[in-house]
Design goal:
There is one protein chain. By secondary structure, the chain is α/β, with parallel strands linked by helices. It has 2 domains: about 5-95 and about 110-140, no CATH class; about 140-178, no CATH class. The chain has 5 helices and 7 strands. The chain has helices at about 5-25, 70-85, 115, 120-125, 145-155, and strands at about 25-30, 50-55, 65, 105-110, 130-140, 160, 175. The chain has a 5-stranded mixed beta sheet with strand order 1-2-3-5-4, with helices on both faces. β2 (about 50-55) and β3 (about 65) form a beta hairpin. The longest helix has 21 residues, at about 5-25. The termini are far apart.
């Protein structure tokens, strides 16, 4: 590793430690044309933007992860959920929740490869892997929480959903209907 890269990592680790000490967690935001690493110009799009927490593990909770939002919305959502965790609530996969003024139902799901995603959290805690939760947003077109769970799972697994319920068409066109 080059000295300037080591210096940047040391500064980044110090920033993360400071944020966790002051707020209980830090947020890492990846993508969306934003990059602070040495030699990164923030140019090429290599997938959807995402953000995740560093510090939930220290609160006895899995790290949290959201995809597809800009930096402002990512921070707002993760901070709101972080406040909930800090207040003692455990966010569980498959259990829907509502966060503040957020206009969508939130369905947390377990991430299959957290070691590849939450790099800063794993480096901070010096661990190889830890479960993380992907927070999926769903509008409240459908009021049945079990049906929203089925929909969330189908979206995450990229599956077609077999249903006669026309409300599902408001969420996806990947339906098998009678």
């Amino acid at each position: 590793m080059q000295p300037h890269q080591r210096a940047w990592i040391d500064q980044e680790d110090a920033r993360i430690r400071d944020m966790i000490c002051r707020h209980g967690w830090a947020i890492e935001y990846i993508g969306g044309g934003e990059c602070s690493a040495p030699g990164c110009d923030g140019g090429d799009d290599d997938g959807p933007a995402f953000g995740y927490t560093v510090g939930m593990f220290g609160l006895g909770h899995d790290e949290l992860l959201v995809f597809g939002f800009d930096a402002h919305d990512t921070a707002g959502l993760l901070n709101s959920i972080g406040d909930t965790v800090q207040d003692g609530e455990t966010i569980l996969p498959g259990h829907g929740l509502t966060v503040g003024n957020w206009p969508h139902q939130i369905i947390p799901e377990q991430v299959p490869n957290p070691g590849d995603i939450v790099y800063s959290a794993n480096r901070f805690y010096r661990r190889l892997d830890r479960h993380s939760l992907d927070v999926l947003r769903l509008s409240l077109h459908h009021r049945d929480p079990f049906d929203r769970l089925l929909l969330a799972q189908a979206q995450i697994e990229d599956l077609h959903l077999a249903t006669a319920d026309p409300v599902f068409s408001l969420y996806t066109d990947r339906l098998l209907t009678p």
